[in-house]
């Protein structure tokens, strides 16, 4: 009885419930009525007590202060050094850990704290990604500690303390998000909201700091390599009085800078999960029985086969590319870029083509759209579109640079083609995925068709006024085991796109940076600006590919 | 009968209707049923046909391409010149005007195009601001044309064409937004959505271009003034072969750069209105009778009096400041800054103090929160919080700069105090306004109290379990003409804050730029970066102050 009462009590104060609950069939007894009133009061406060407002204000303040500190330390390394920034980050990390400890030990142990779990929050790919990138970030911190210990006699101890705190934080946060990502917290809601925005903003500040640090480092390396300015070289490296006390320093430094992108990705993952948790605080999730849709790999054939072939080809050329780029020979680099660009163009063209086919089938397919509101889906779509901005940004900047300089040569032409095709592919894929997520899942239609009687069927046909749909419902009801050609095509497209996104994820995630191996954009935007664009855009692009894979899998299941 | 049917037909396909309509009392006849079905079909397509998705994709693409072009022209003035950027802008402006013409002449003339108007969209302050800033932008374009005509013999004609097109655009857009800002379009929804995002992104690209142009110009002037680098001077000015053919060129150029901030503000206003219109496409607004709340200025006294005094004092010192700054004497400048900082600190402290009082009264006041969802209000709150970021940004960057350099002297101390107080004031004011907008309007409570019977009242008291509220309801019901002290305090605070926001709007809007008259931030962040921050943040800050005034007026009316 109790949970039901609670749902009703909170109904008018939370805007998250999709279906209107039928209250007429319920009776109250005095005991539960008391609880009902208490909870009603509590819930009202939860929703309107300004907790979300306060948490928002905290988030904005930490973020903008972090932004000012990080850019201050990047543009003016005299007054604000890395040490100041790291002290600020250590404070943030400690506060966040304290709150996580409080939540794990006190809030989540209470009886009424977590009555509902959002089954869509913290999906498996996000969790797995978090652990993977968390481990690599941990490795980065170990290398950092080993490196900066060598400078302890002449540099600040904060440089060792920060990676130590961060390493602990990685464990605490990964554990916290692993166990609590699905919680819809109902107790201490105000405090939990503030804690979650603290987590969110801490991760975003860590992200900003990592992006800035990597960009500054890359710019320094670049300036060193081309030996552009002898004066600059002396200023940034030659004047360094502090020498490392052990011999492995250089190796460690190279290693941890190589691992930076994983730490950036980790922060983005954790931010996304903290944001979803924040949205879920105080939310009442209807416990819908979540149809177990069986994944039948045999249903499709062409999609997986071509997809896997694509992944193999991509992997082979990727390894070739990485090997040839390392040789630092102009001719070899150009050959590597030629292969890389060509393969990417082929992949992206095939993807665009199959997405177009999928979109046409959607037009022909008269499946109903889901009419009920679903906050998790809206959030998912928002994250997908938001993350795609990163790749959009890089591609458009490339297009402008190549077109504006009127650059000739096959490499520039390939680069331009690739950028244009990526823009096209991103737009199409976003449309395809969002459209797919908004269609009524097939098994729901099927069940409706099986349980319906002739009268209802006729009514339904009249309502939708589409002759074709009636035919397909009949068809589905009579032979549920065989796929209609439309569903089959959609499933093939989904699986193919899924594999293609996997290979497009692997290449940048494991170190392909044609953006820096090709000089046209560097020449056009100056190195500093181009590094900033790539370092901001690329992690979002990687996140986008992983997110697409998960969404395409969902679309595949419901089609 | 017809419009009612239509509302029901669209009900399940639009998520914008707040109250659930009672359908049981309605009967259908065959004729309307046909229309009902047709409309249902149409509306489903409208909502799910991908129009909003397509319009979003268009918006992202134009924005990012614009971003790439604008930053390309700022960082690399060789390959992409102002002319390329202006050609792109001319195309955008022409396309937007074409769509606006189509909408005004065809869509809006149709019978079923605009069945509903959103009474909250395009409020009077936004309309008035649009016209005011539109006129000043028009003046800017006139000056631009007059200036660039003088260079026609040796410079591109595009530089004249762009302000001409922009001037026409200003008229078309202002007329369009003036007459159609409240429309909830029901016809050609997909096309209208795309048109509105085109309008939105055009305005944002114009905004980006204006901000960049102004920043580059300010940096050039700065470098000229301090004569920092003789080489740079020659590169940017000395090499200019093109001489103006008439003598008034310099005057015109100075004049139109002075008017740039108004054009930036105009673009922001138009963007906000286009965004609200886009959100309203296909929306069904319930025609609620919109209680006419009478504005009774006699109810309050202390707030307006102190507020007007503050405005007078602010105006006097602002004029003094402007006069003294123009003299370009170090000592006079410092004296002017001293006055300006002190007055601002006094204003902001008084505001914070009164907001704290207001927040305490809210805590004591047990007025119900509005439970129904209201998209217009959510949008309003979003715009308010979003716009406040601009001022937050500037203040935090100032705080970091002053603290990090450990700058001494009374001017730095005042600057720091001001920045800290502004952050505090913004947080408090956001909280106060949002809390005020979410409270049940007083007249609604009053009516409920008057029409209620003893039983219902008792029930209500039991439910909310607050003894105080019963007393206040009795009080309100018995003497509705006299204000309770709580309402009176809240009203006084609202009016005071309103006037204080007016003076804080006037000062930056009409040219106070202490950010550039004081050197600490320029020294810390370098001139280029600081100009960018101020030119992005300040227009949002100005927008925020105007928006606050409007919101405070609304809170005042409903309290």
Automatic annotation (TrEMBL), chains A, B:
<keyword id="KW-0375">Hydrogen ion transport</keyword>
<feature type="transmembrane region" description="Helical">
    <location>
        <begin position="255"/>
        <end position="278"/>
    </location>
</feature>
<feature type="transmembrane region" description="Helical">
    <location>
        <begin position="524"/>
        <end position="544"/>
    </location>
</feature>
<dbReference type="GO" id="GO:0005886">
    <property type="term" value="C:plasma membrane"/>
</dbReference>
<feature type="transmembrane region" description="Helical">
    <location>
        <begin position="416"/>
        <end position="434"/>
    </location>
</feature>
<protein>
    <submittedName>
        <fullName>Otopetrin 2</fullName>
    </submittedName>
</protein>
<keyword id="KW-0407">Ion channel</keyword>
<dbReference type="Pfam" id="PF03189">
    <property type="entry name" value="Otopetrin"/>
</dbReference>
<feature type="transmembrane region" description="Helical">
    <location>
        <begin position="126"/>
        <end position="146"/>
    </location>
</feature>
<feature type="transmembrane region" description="Helical">
    <location>
        <begin position="493"/>
        <end position="512"/>
    </location>
</feature>
<dbReference type="InterPro" id="IPR004878">
    <property type="entry name" value="Otopetrin"/>
</dbReference>
<feature type="transmembrane region" description="Helical">
    <location>
        <begin position="158"/>
        <end position="178"/>
    </location>
</feature>
<keyword id="KW-0812">Transmembrane</keyword>
<feature type="transmembrane region" description="Helical">
    <location>
        <begin position="87"/>
        <end position="106"/>
    </location>
</feature>
<feature type="transmembrane region" description="Helical">
    <location>
        <begin position="341"/>
        <end position="362"/>
    </location>
</feature>
<keyword id="KW-1133">Transmembrane helix</keyword>
<comment type="similarity">
    <text>Belongs to the otopetrin family.</text>
</comment>
<keyword id="KW-0813">Transport</keyword>
<dbReference type="GO" id="GO:0015252">
    <property type="term" value="F:proton channel activity"/>
</dbReference>
<feature type="transmembrane region" description="Helical">
    <location>
        <begin position="299"/>
        <end position="321"/>
    </location>
</feature>
<feature type="transmembrane region" description="Helical">
    <location>
        <begin position="52"/>
        <end position="75"/>
    </location>
</feature>
<keyword id="KW-0406">Ion transport</keyword>
<keyword id="KW-1003">Cell membrane</keyword>
<feature type="transmembrane region" description="Helical">
    <location>
        <begin position="383"/>
        <end position="404"/>
    </location>
</feature>
<keyword id="KW-0472">Membrane</keyword>
């Amino acid at each position: 009885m109790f949970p039901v009462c609670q749902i009703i009590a909170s109904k008018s104060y939370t805007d998250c419930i999709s279906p209107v609950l039928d209250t007429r069939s319920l009776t109250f007894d005095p005991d539960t009525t008391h609880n009902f009133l208490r909870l009603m009061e509590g819930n009202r406060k939860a929703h309107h007590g300004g907790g979300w407002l306060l948490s928002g204000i905290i988030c904005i303040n930490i973020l903008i202060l972090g932004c000012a500190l990080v850019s201050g330390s990047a543009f003016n390394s005299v007054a604000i050094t890395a040490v100041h920034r790291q002290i600020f980050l250590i404070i943030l990390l400690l506060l966040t850990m304290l709150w996580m400890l409080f939540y794990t030990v006190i809030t989540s142990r209470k009886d009424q704290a977590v009555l509902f779990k959002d089954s869509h929050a913290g999906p498996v790919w996000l969790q797995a990604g978090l652990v993977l990138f968390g481990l690599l970030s941990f490795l980065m911190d170990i290398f950092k500690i080993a490196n900066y210990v060598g400078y302890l006699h002449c540099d600040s101890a904060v440089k060792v303390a920060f990676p130590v705190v961060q390493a602990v934080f990685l464990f605490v946060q990964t554990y916290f998000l692993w166990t609590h990502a699905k919680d819809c917290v109902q107790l201490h809601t105000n405090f939990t909201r503030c804690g979650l925005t603290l987590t969110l903003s801490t991760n975003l500040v860590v992200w900003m700091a990592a992006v800035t640090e990597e960009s500054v480092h890359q710019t320094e390396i670049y300036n060193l390599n081309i030996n552009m300015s002898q004066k600059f070289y002396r200023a940034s490296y030659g004047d360094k009085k502090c020498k490392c006390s052990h011999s492995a320093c250089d190796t460690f430094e190279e290693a941890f800078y190589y691992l930076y992108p994983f730490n950036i990705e980790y922060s983005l993952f954790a931010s996304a999960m903290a944001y979803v948790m924040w949205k879920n605080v105080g939310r009442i999730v209807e416990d819908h029985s979540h149809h177990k849709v069986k994944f039948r790999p045999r249903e499709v054939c062409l999609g997986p086969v071509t997809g896997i072939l694509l992944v193999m080809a991509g992997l082979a050329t990727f390894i070739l590319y990485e090997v040839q780029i390392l040789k630092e020979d102009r001719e070899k680099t150009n050959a590597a870029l030629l292969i890389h660009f060509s393969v990417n163009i082929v992949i992206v063209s095939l993807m665009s083509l199959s997405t177009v086919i999928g979109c046409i089938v959607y037009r022909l397919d008269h499946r109903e759209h889901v009419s009920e509101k679903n906050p998790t889906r809206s959030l998912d779509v928002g994250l997908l579109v938001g993350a795609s901005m990163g790749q959009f940004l890089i591609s458009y900047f490339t297009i402008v640079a190549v077109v504006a300089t009127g650059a000739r040569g096959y490499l520039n032409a390939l680069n331009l083609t690739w950028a244009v095709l990526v823009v096209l592919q991103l737009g199409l894929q976003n449309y395809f995925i969002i459209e797919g997520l908004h269609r009524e899942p097939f098994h729901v239609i099927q069940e409706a068709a099986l349980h319906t009687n002739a009268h209802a069927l006729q009514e339904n046909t009249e309502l939708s006024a589409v002759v074709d749909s009636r035919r397909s419902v009949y068809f589905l009801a009579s032979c549920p085991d065989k796929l209609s050609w439309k569903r089959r095509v959609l499933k093939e497209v989904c699986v193919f796109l899924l594999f293609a996104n996997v290979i497009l994820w692997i290449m940048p995630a494991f170190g392909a940076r044609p953006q820096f191996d090709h000089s046209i954009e560097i020449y056009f935007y100056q190195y500093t600006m181009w590094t900033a664009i790539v370092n901001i855009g690329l992690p979002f692009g990687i996140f986008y590919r992983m997110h697409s894979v998960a969404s395409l899998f969902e679309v595949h299941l419901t089609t």
